[in-house]
Amino acid sequence: MPPILPMRHAHRHRHIVCRVTVTCMTGTPGPKDLVRRGYDAVSHRYRRDADSDVGERRAWIARLVAQLPPGASVLDLGCGCGIPVSRDLAAAGLSVTGVDLSDVQIGRAREFVPSARFLRADASDVDFPPDTFDAVVCLYMLIHLPLDEQPPVLAKVASWLLPGGRFVATTGHRAWTGTEENWLGGGAPMWWSHGDAATYREWLANAGFTLDAEEFVPEGDGGHTLFWCRRR
């Protein structure tokens, strides 16, 4: 039986109960093991400190906060080291839970955002009770999951949200699966897998979301799609 971890948020006067499935990996590393090891290796290169330049992400979070009630409960799924999403959400007085696959990232998040609660867990395995969160933020995490795991994760996210709850996520814009060796010069490979924007629109609708807005986020020769959704 997976462990059940109670998480208290005093200003909401309730518990958030999280179920985490712990698995042991042996043999050849799978894609998600590459992702975990990759972020362990490059965490300090990816975000050097709490003052790292994070560009447009802070504007996205400010936009989300303006749509939420005071003291709202928010999940940062794929929180990394907590900068800027968890930090800015907590600074706005919200109750923040962060989840990430990397031990190093979670350790740094706990240091940078001590008022939030952080879990080292696989997004495909972690679980929360229905109607737990007012919003879920998922930036640049889905694209590190195998394609067949992404629709079930979206369905779980919808169940965790209160009716009308907000979901902000970045996805692929064009379909691609691949690995980059020595990512960011950290000495470890990184792995990605994503569908195109049309695929994610379909998956989000099937999961129970209403799409409010969609934006293209350029990066290098390509880019990502930013979705703003609500749980139906």
What are the key terms here?
232 residues; Rossmann fold; seven-stranded mixed sheet; two-stranded antiparallel sheet; 6 helices; 11 strands; globular
Briefly say what this structure is.
By secondary structure, this protein is of the alpha/beta class. It has six helices and eleven strands.
Describe the protein in words.
- With 232 residues, the chain is of the alpha/beta class.
- The protein has a single domain, classed as Vaccinia Virus protein VP39 (Rossmann fold), CATH 3.40.50.
- It has 6 helices and 11 strands.
- Helix 5 (150-160) crosses helix 6.
- The longest helix is centred in the N-terminal third of the chain and has 16 residues, at 31-46.
- The protein is globular.
- The relative contact order is 0.15.
Q: What amount of the residues lies in strands? A: 25-35%
Shape: globular
In helices, the fraction of residues equals 25-40%
CATH level-3 fold name: Rossmann fold
Radius of gyration: 17 Å
Total number of helices: 6
Question: What can be said about the biggest beta sheet?
Answer: 7 strands, mixed
**What is the highest CATH level, the class?**
Alpha Beta
Order of helices and strands: EEHHEHEHEEHEEEHEE
CATH superfamily: Vaccinia Virus protein VP39
Strand order of the largest sheet: 5-4-3-6-7-11-10
Unreliable stretches (pLDDT < 50, length at least 5) are 1-14, 22-26
Mean pLDDT: 89
Set out the fold topology.
Blueprint: E1 4-9, E2 14-19, H1 31-46, H2 57-65, E3 73-77, H3 85-91, E4 95-100, H4 103-112, E5 117-120, E6 133-138, H5 150-160, E7 161-172, E8 176-180, E9 190-194, H6 197-207, E10 209-219, E11 222-231
Parallel strand pairs: 3-4, 3-6, 4-5, 6-7
Antiparallel strand pairs: 1-2, 7-11, 8-9, 10-11
